[in-house]
Amino acid sequence: MELDLLRKFDAKTNRVKGLAFHPHRPWILASLHNGIIQLYDYRMEILLESFEEHEGPVRGIDFHKTQPLFVSGGDDYKVKVWNYSSRRCLYTLHGHLDYIRTVYFHPNQYPWILSSSDDQTVRIWNWQSRTCLLVLTGHNHYVMCAQWHPTEDLILSASLDQTIRVWDISGLRKRSTSIVDDLASGGGGPSSMGGFAGGSGFGAGAGSSGGANGGPPGQGSSDVFGNVDAVVKFVLEGHSRGVNWASFHPTMSLVVSGADDREIKVWRMSGSRAWETTTYRGHLNNVSCVLFHAKENVIISNSEDKTLRVWDISRTHPPLAFRRDNDRYWILAAHPRLNLLAAGHDNGMLIFKLSRERPAFYYMPNDSIYYFNEGYIRLYSINTGNDKALMPSRSNASGGGSSARDLGSSYGSGGSSKRSKRPRFLFYNPYVHKSSKEINILMYYDSMSSAAAGGSASGEEPEYELYAMDKKGNNISSNQRSNGLSVAFVNKNRFAVLTSDGEIILKSMENISRNKLKIPERSVNYIFEGGINRLILRSTEFITLFDCKSRRIIHELQIPTRFPIKFVHWDKPHYRRCALLAKFSVMICDSELNDICTVYENAKVKSGAWSNTGQVYIYTTVTHMKYALPSGDAGIIKTLDEVLYIACIHGNTVTCMTRDWKIKQIEIDDTEFVFKRALHARKFSEVKRIIEADKLRGESILSYLQKKGYPEVALRFVQDPSTRFELAIECGNIDDAFQCCKEINTEKVWNRFAESALMQGNYRYVTEAYKQTRNFEKLMNLFLINGNFAMLNKLADIAKAQENTMMQFNIAMLNGCGPNCGEHVLTRIQVLKQAQQFGLAYLTARSNGLSEIAEAIKSEHLSGVDGEIKINKHLLSPSTKSMRVPRVVYGVFDDQSKYDWPQLPKVMDIFDIADQDGGGGGDDEKESQQQQQTRQQQEESDEESERDAADREEDDEDEDDDEEEEWGASKKSKKKSPKKSANLSAELMGDESDLELSSEEDDGGNEDAAENEHKKFLSESSSLFTMPGSGKQSRERWLDRATAAADLIAAGAFDLAQEKLQREFGIINFEPLKPYFLNIYNSCHGYLALTPNARDIAVAIRRGKEKESSGAQSQTANICYSVQSCFDILADAFQCVTSAEFESAIEKLRSVLHIVPLLIISSSDQLRDARNLIKQCREYINALRVKLEANQAGENNDLQRQFELNCYFTHFELSDAHLFSGLYGAMKLGYKQSYFKTTATLCRRLLELSVSGKLRNDDTSQKYVKQVQKVLKKCDQKGSASGDDEKLAYKPHDFTALCAMSLTPIDRNEETVKSPYCQSVFKQEFNGRLSPVCNLVRIGDHKEGVSINAK
Question: 117, 763, 1037, 1068 — which has fewest CB within 10 A?
């Protein structure tokens, strides 16, 4: 079988000495040489937690199988038990006298810990009672490791005394079991308890000589009853130097060991004998660790020779070697359930697999799955559940794959085929008609790379096998095997093969070449099925739909991510849509390969399939099963316990394959995506049915409905008053909002409700809100503009009772609009006198013709004023009324609803609207509703005319009396004696029941009236039609159609924009982006002033041409930044560089890096320009930072560092003029400081640049060239005598890259990390820090980067 090292996770840390996989979660523990224990999630590739309590290196680590515990042992002689849930050490076990090498929990039900130590002992601990149960002695040197047998009562220990010992602990197990039984039955004396909990026994092992057989049982340890707890069963001798590691086989009676003699030995145990079977040689240094692979017939070992080797036990393949350049390997670990391995080295750890586990299968719409398993092509029928083998594969017909039974058997020479016996992919010809009797299948096999073979064999091309058979599985053709990079069926008679030279060959079903296709200007590296006579071609940057018949490109799509497309899934048999799967994204396209939407993931995408309707795409990641809709919506269906590969979907049943080639059928809840699909298609009857079934729950569906502009639908899901209030206000449901206000009853909510009711023109709801908040000023204005003077008079009484003189005066002024204006003038005069404003009172009386009152005020209060009070003539003119407020021309109504603003007809709820694709129906009901509405309007009109006639017959005084009665006060109240006037305030506040002013001390006699009035108000308001919203606002439309972060910013959704930028670019520091966020938001919102004193009208500024105003682009915001504006800023930055204004240039360049993530990129040309912008800014920012650092070094007289930095400056990709200037400056500096060899190299680079034709060829340039030639000549003369160049850290011929953080060179084999945004290179030690280039992202993250984000 093909084996290769498939990297899954690579962590850079201190030296790793111990590793342990969690048995169920995607976690791994790494114990480091610096004493830290780190917990990683290898699926998400993140560090979860660090544990620091050990003093010195930690060499042993292990997870408990069921409890949230792990154990560790280190050079501080301590065994520590930790709880990773509480993130702390529970306790420490003391007893070892030297370094602890390994620690392991018992693999089964016993509460035991096994530890080995340099004190030459192996100890068994009870982690529940926290005591040592047993000490195994017998080794006379360091015990390097000790392990439990996975199923039997055996312990394996390896020591530097060159022996491996197998211990039998069945006595300890029996004694522990008997004690537990005695305790359960009430027995168990002190002696037995002591032997179990705290007693310790010592066993001396006696072994055989030479290692041919295990020796007789040694003297075991025994308790007071004579029971032997542990005995030495075998002593395996054969290594010539100390043994570093030994491991049991997980299922067979085998042991593998590795030692300092650089050999790996396999031992077999049988009964009372144990013997060496095989020795493997190949390592060039001490073997650190060795173990059996649980699922493959191989042994994995690592060594201090910096290699990790894989040994084929059947010897049909040569050993594989995977080498690191600088790191020694120290430890290996295998996952207890999965096909995962981990190796620890000097600079971290590596998690990998040795073979791919993806099953090869193909689904046909006739409900059949063709797949490969155990050497056979099999057919599974979904309808019947029948699974049968069609025919054996040619690669496995002779003997199939090797199995575990080959272990320890005789080894033949075997073949050395470098091709896997398990296919990577299986393809069925989908274009063959159902009635056809012939079946065509292609099986594609990977080849083993030369790197995987450690350079021992040359790489070969991948191969494919063509099978032509009848439906019974009888082979029709033979010898159908060829090489090819990839294959795909084109039609029922042809399939395509991509060759290594980039050509596409169309072959017949006899595997005979018929045509050759050459794709111009494209380096095709893979082909996919594209429909009949079509192929999808993958190149480095493009995905192309190619017509094989006409030999033309139908459509080309730029790959939006840096990860290549791995799979293409069509909605067969319709071929209307396809899904393109990359490592972290799913792109949905139409039949012409036009991009519909793209869904990005944080976890790796594994598989997917279209539903049988072709309306939803369901895919799996390593952790979840998810869905994606062509509308762009996506969500989680369920969490997965194992990785599944989807074959097909029928209704709510998903058929999958596991990594064990088993077929599973999973029932899923499809309510969420069915609901979203119906809502997007405006099938409101389906939406209503799902809601009424009450199947949807959760905050996510509420936020989705709000985002999509259906708050009235979300309102039906919510019970919380606060949330209901927000949704009701958003959708304009003022009645529901009023009910929520009464439940919440806070001033903030009432004010918000009043504002919304005022916008809708609902007079009574506005009045009620102002009453609840006691906002008399706003009530006063509201009554005035509606001409409701009766209510205004009542407010005057309340103001008088509260002694609010300012409010009394304002009401008296405003009442000049109504009848009996003279009384209100007297009121104003009286209020001014009370406020001791006698001059204003006098002027008010004189200007209104009240001479007697004016003279009385003058004589009483203004007698001391010298001279005569002069009044302008126009104030005394009887024809002028400049001091009087104009009368509002508005009627006085008994019916409060008449004060409402004119309202539009109520917009029907979406549940009253028929489906967009549905027919009419219900015409009779509509007609009857219209007739009923017409009759109701006629009756209301008649009642209104009668009331108007009655009002005209009454005089003004009667109107006042009626108004007082309406407020609940009798006419007799005005004629009461002054003794009772003290109760006027109480009476007025009691009358506030009319105003709905809640008071805790209301008079009991008014409670019934208030309750009746409140019920009347509610009964009247329940029959109102509410003011509908005027459609979606621009921000809502922008949010619905947002595909880029800038669209979200324009819509005001800054939080969503930040999430998108973090997901796509890895941005974590948003402070530099704040001004750009605000600029985008402000630039797409304008205001128009229509008339003076009128409110400005908000206007949305949209992008798109005028003739496209009806298109989708007109529904998106106009973004103030563009690619061209970035190039303009870049040109300004170049000018600053030329004028040596480096700090200003860096600021401008960083602004470009801050703007690019906010650009609207809708074409491949714009994408190319954006990537070019990022590249140029990165190079110039790093170069200018180096230049500034060099200037600083010069000021500090660090001349060597100054010259080195100037040399580094010349290695950035700058414009030719700037590069020439940098080289020239470095040359002069190096010549002055006598670095002649390096300066000569700089001179040669200058001369090469001058003759390249990229610089101006004028007199000035020639002058510089001549000077460079002179310097080069002198440097060549003096270079051999100077040794100063050896001191430089800069090596011109060995320079690879510069760390953008420390500004120091990176060694050729040094581990590096990159910025996920600008791709600047950093040393590993700066992983996780904020990038100094853009000040936005965290170094070392892996993100998609800039991509096409708009159509």
Answer: 1068
Q: What is the pLDDT of residue 163?
A: 94
Give pTM, 2 decimals.
0.58
Strand order in the sheet with 6-12: 6-12, 348-353, 341-345, 329-334
Strand partners, 815: none
Contact 290, 304 (CB under 8 A): no
The H-or-E segment that residue 811 falls in is: helix 805-814
Locate 1199 and state its tokens. Answer: 């001349």
Could you give the CA distance from residue 377 to residue 385 in angstroms, rounded to a whole number?
16
- Token reading at 627: 């869905």
Closest CA to 43 of 7, 8, 12: 8
pLDDT at 113 > cutoff 90: yes
Phi, psi of 328 (to 5 degrees): -85, 145
Half-sphere exposure of 520 (CA within 13 A, CB side): 3
Query: How far is the C-alpha of 1268 from the C-alpha of 1248, rounded, in Å?
Result: 11
Residue 79 to residue 61: CA distance in whole angstroms: 10
Q: How do beta strands 376-381 and 143-148 pair?
A: unpaired
CA atoms within a 13 Å half-sphere pointing along the CA-CB vector of 588: 25
Q: Are strands 202-203 and 163-168 parallel, antiparallel or unpaired?
A: unpaired
- Which residues, listed in sequence order, are joined to residue 317 by a DSSP beta bridge? none
Supply the DSSP symbol for 55: S
DSSP sequence for 69-83: EEEEEETTS-EEEEE
Whole-number CA gyration radius for the chain: 44
**Tokens of residue 498, six digits:** 């991509």
Give 537's contacts (C-beta < 8 A, 6+ positions apart): 504, 519, 522, 524, 526, 527, 528, 543, 544, 545, 546
CA–CA distance, 1298 with 1185 (Å, rounded to integer) = 12
For 347-392, the pLDDT digits (tens) are 999 999 888 888 999 988 878 899 988 888 888 988 888 888 888 8
Q: CB atoms < 10 A from the CB of 945, how many? A: 10
According to DSSP H, which parts of 693-733 are helical? 699-707, 711-714, 721-731
Is 698 exposed, middle or buried, given 0-12, 13-18 or 19+ CB atoms closer than 10 A? Answer: exposed
Question: Are the C-beta atoms of residues 213 and 233 closer than 8 Å to each other?
Answer: no
What's CA 461's distance to the chain center, in Å?
38
CB 147 within 8 A of CB 124: no
The C-alpha atoms of residue 90 and residue 497 are separated, in whole angstroms, by 62
* Residue 563 CB neighbours (<10 A): 16
- Residue 78 has a pLDDT of 94
CA distance 170 to 231: 9
pLDDT in tens, 648-679: 998 889 999 998 888 999 999 888 888 888 88
The mean pLDDT value for 746-752 works out to: 87
Query: pLDDT digit string (tens) for 752-792?
Result: 888 888 877 777 888 888 888 888 778 877 777 777 777 77
pLDDT recorded at residue 1093: 59
Beta bridge partners of 621: 605
**Peptide bond connecting 1075 to the previous residue in cis, omega within 30 degrees of 0:** no
Q: What is the C-alpha separation between 1181 and 286, in angstroms, rounded? A: 47
Amino acid at 650: H
pLDDT for res 694: 65
Q: Give the closest residue to 1222 by CA, choosing from 1204, 1209, 1205.
A: 1209
C-alpha distances out from residue 27 to 23, 61, 62, 64, 1039, Å: 8, 13, 12, 13, 38
What distances in angstroms separate CA 825 from CA 314, 802, 818, 961, 1193, one per listed residue?
115, 20, 12, 20, 85
Tens of pLDDT, residues 1000-1017: 334 444 445 444 544 443
**Encoded amino acid at 233, one letter:** K
Torsion sign across C-alpha atoms 7, 13, 18, 23: negative
Residues belonging to the chain: 1351
Q: In 763-804, which residue ranges form alpha helices assigned H by DSSP?
A: 763-773, 776-785, 789-801
